[in-house]
Amino acid sequence: MKVWIDQDLCTGDGLCAEIAPDVFVMQNDGLAYVQETVGNFGDLKIFSNIHNNDQGAEGLAQVPKGQEDIVQEAMEECPGECIFLVP
What we know:
CATH class: Alpha Beta
Number of strands: 6
Helix content: 10-25%
Radius of gyration: 12 Å
Oligomer: single chain
Number of domains: 1
Distance between the termini: 5 Å
CATH topology: Alpha-Beta Plaits
Largest sheet: 3 strands, antiparallel
Shape: globular
Number of helices: 2
Strand content: 25-35%
Structural class: alpha+beta
């Protein structure tokens, strides 16, 4: 399962980052972004233009195994309805 956030709909309230902090992160612009762990050292890849990602904020982050339910919960609780899951 993968996840992305539509930045145009994000209200920046941060519920997603509270519910699933391994998948969602708040940035200085007040919006939430998806992130994923890459490599063997636990480096984080944040999907945003600020972090020089080719996909920008609409990149698809892999949901870590075992966290599908909390990502689903974050999507359902999001007031901006900006979180989208891709099987």
